Amino acid sequence: MYRSHTCGELRLSDINSTVTLAGWVQRSRDLGGMTFIDLRDRYGITQLAFNAEDDAEMADKATKLGREFVVQVTGKVVERSSKNKNIPTGEIEIIVTALDILNAAKTPPFTIEDNTDGGEELRAQYRYLDLRRNPVQEKLKFRNRVALETRKYLDSQDFIDIETPYLIKSTPEGARDFVVPSRMNEGQFYALPQSPQTFKQLLMVSGFDRYYQIVKCFRDEALRADRQPEFTQIDCEMAFVEQEDILQTFEGMVKHLFKTVRNVEFSYEFPRMTYAEAMEKYGSDKPDIRFGMEFVDLSSIAKGHGFAIFDEAEAILAINAEQCAVYTRKQLDTLTDWLKRPQIGAKGLIYLRVNEDGTYKSSVDKFYSETELKKWADAANAKPGDLILVMSGDLEKTRKQMNELRLHMGNELGLRNPNQFAPLWVLDFPLLEWDEESGRYHAMHHPFTSPKPEDMHLIETEPGKVRANAYDLAINGVEIGGGSIRIHDRDLQSRMFDLLGFTKEEALAQFGFLMNAFEYGAPPHGGLAFGLDRLVATMNGSDTIRDYIAFPKNNSGRDVMIDAPAPLDDAQLKELGIKLS
Amino acid sequence: MYRSHTCGELRLSDINSTVTLAGWVQRSRDLGGMTFIDLRDRYGITQLAFNAEDDAEMADKATKLGREFVVQVTGKVVERSSKNKNIPTGEIEIIVTALDILNAAKTPPFTIEDNTDGGEELRAQYRYLDLRRNPVQEKLKFRNRVALETRKYLDSQDFIDIETPYLIKSTPEGARDFVVPSRMNEGQFYALPQSPQTFKQLLMVSGFDRYYQIVKCFRDEALRADRQPEFTQIDCEMAFVEQEDILQTFEGMVKHLFKTVRNVEFSYEFPRMTYAEAMEKYGSDKPDIRFGMEFVDLSSIAKGHGFAIFDEAEAILAINAEQCAVYTRKQLDTLTDWLKRPQIGAKGLIYLRVNEDGTYKSSVDKFYSETELKKWADAANAKPGDLILVMSGDLEKTRKQMNELRLHMGNELGLRNPNQFAPLWVLDFPLLEWDEESGRYHAMHHPFTSPKPEDMHLIETEPGKVRANAYDLAINGVEIGGGSIRIHDRDLQSRMFDLLGFTKEEALAQFGFLMNAFEYGAPPHGGLAFGLDRLVATMNGSDTIRDYIAFPKNNSGRDVMIDAPAPLDDAQLKELGIKLS
Fold this sequence. Notes:
The structure is a homodimer of 581-residue chains. Chain A is of the alpha+beta class and 581 residues long.
């Protein structure tokens, strides 16, 4: 071992010990006769002291150490005259008697400090240096704690960690698969799993009863800030359970994680809301309920007053921004422009100020009397000083736009404190969603989700209205996890594939093994999966999952540090039996 | 929840409780008026009792349940009149008052019993049914315990679990990569990692100090019984350590695993042996030291007696099979034939019986006098009743063949008790090995392994003699893990790539990121990786890793259950920009 102690562990009680430390030169201060060096490792920082009067040669050597040099020092622990109360080792320093340079370092391309001067691209290219910075290390340590506590909790609940294969079969349903040509089976391909879904269901058929895995999954999709081509799931499945059992079990897990890793205790049951209610009140299936500002439907009171835009609209939705009557015309114009950007695509924004004196000011007051406007204010529960914001149009689009506006106003008004956590179960998702492009229904969750028995009568006539035994957990407006009770009956599963437009042959070729398994005694089962990357970021009050991944890919799916993907040489392609087209 | 209790938990103390159980019909016995059913779940078996006199309809329903039906029953716990001492629930049974068939089952294609009648192929095709069998479930539960205790130990030693990417860059060094075409970067490919080697080294450069990961790795190689295209490693790396620190840390881990999971305690330090000694004494770099039978070099005494085969041989090696003088001529012929099979390729086998009366009988006694043969016996420390087996030829080949013979004799003589464990560290592996096919040196471990400083003077003149700071842990003749101290100096790493025949350009293109990282303050570091599949199998006294994998692939790399790999449709190929050749 190159050290007797780490750079984070020496205290006043160690005074007069002789110790050996190893680490990186964080900072060097040459104060004439004295040189001080901050030596850093994963565990902390310890100050090294060199006195030119005592040992000129050593002090000279010390002044020549550059930033990020790796050194080993031996010396005596002494009490510092000027103590640093900000760090746990701040009461001591080391009078160095031996100094060994283990490795030199070129000047790093950006500063290895909490606040670095390096831009995003440069830091991505030198990710191994960015990972030296304290805030980045803390994020990965946090992730490690979350993963380990997840395992402890699930183990305590009799879940078994079972590894499922990474080289599986491509299935055209859903997102695009990454595929892997097989050299031993030329012309054939494996696919990387988008999730271990069918395997975990087979494990339930096998009687494992409770399964979990923290597992990489892969989707070849266009990337966004919160999407990576490879991502990590906490993947779970249980047999002989109903939805309530699953919600209880995983609410327990999330509470355990917050308590053990964040010291946040939830003394209440997580609130629950149906998908229908979430869409009605928040226009989102993952509402941020840290704040209210629920949608108010103005249709019945705002229609029929000659304002054509409202009269023709399918929906007229409002939110009440409390104490925002002070917004100037300019502020409202800026807000309107923000909503009109193509990312949101709103046509416009109507406002209603409830003045402090009880009068009203609206952008449409030539169509509405004070009495009519008062009805709006009453419906929105607005008080003097509040500002009502109204959008209208097609129901679905208006909800989406209003959701964006609500979240934006939440940010503006400081209602979205990253250190406050508002979990919410969203229940009763629709089984299917209509896809305009392909002109058919798609599974909203996946094709293995069980419809609600009480909605089964609608399945032929109004399949879009059938609700599923499917649920999501949202925290602070982020979808953290989701799952469903699964189909465990071959006939129902087969009927589901029909509904989704599979031919019998396609269904058999792709999922025959699962349907066959259902014929040999499949128990009722269900489960869910959490996105670990998002869970960890959200628990830490952040919305950038990339920060919580040691070696993330950029928006083009590239690892710029190792420069992958890359061309293959011809011999490799030939051996695989493929050509570039 | 479909049950109040599992099938493994009811005891005499539960008598008179009303309980609900759910599980699979394991067996049904119709004894006239009484029907007994063994209900099975992951936790155990509980006997259900149906009395036709009390409830004829219910009893009738019970007799109609087939094997592997999934049922839910409610009933009263009663004491059994004829107790089954073999199972924990054997003192009670359930008088069933409600019976609900949750799912019917076709008759399974093989029996779901500890000893099944299903052949290997059939069980592979219906792996989800094979996984129901108790011995198979136990193996995966065992694996789960080993993985979890590994994490607990490493966490207690300050290791951080950090996920490294699965979509990386192909490197021609070593085994073949599986590759993944990138749709977003047409004509370019990711590779699946053969190990996270370079990433864990970068994490050391980043200062994470102690890293671990239980991670899937991929090798597109010809498969054998103990090889799978995807396999799991316990992958570890430490900074600021010397070889001794690594050996201590991971010897501690293995002891922890044996103690917590197998209740086997090692009260001694694992023995250590150099690679050179292991090859000399056992002809193997992973000797099974549960038994002796070490190689004896007869060259100096057996040469020069007119027996041309020996006189011309580079090596004459013997082992002493104790108490095997009773082997008949026929047994010896069988042994010789076994050695002559192409898998081993020996030319022949010479024997020397040490008879009980002290006389000798050898297949070559026309060349050797009793006095000469006595020298053989003395060299091999043979006593009356022992049998000396001798092979000769090229040193390397003879060692390999003798190793096979030694292991075979160990099996024959019952010296390889699967419940006895003999760990052994093998040290000082050669840095390089000569590859006849390519006519150049290959890295024996990998190109990042550090040569021993004391052998550095040989690196230009006799590179094959340079030893590495590389080590393996073998248990019972199985390589469980291995690792090395790594190079952390750019110049040395660059020199190593030269030695391995890389051009400067190739080295930079493939590993430039690592060599660059070494310029920014890389600490001394090293690590190792355990093969989890093999570790688990070996700890459980088995040599079939496939049994410890939930969904293994066959020898052609196929998953016969899901039928993968499989052809892709043309649209998918087109989107990926590739064609079949």
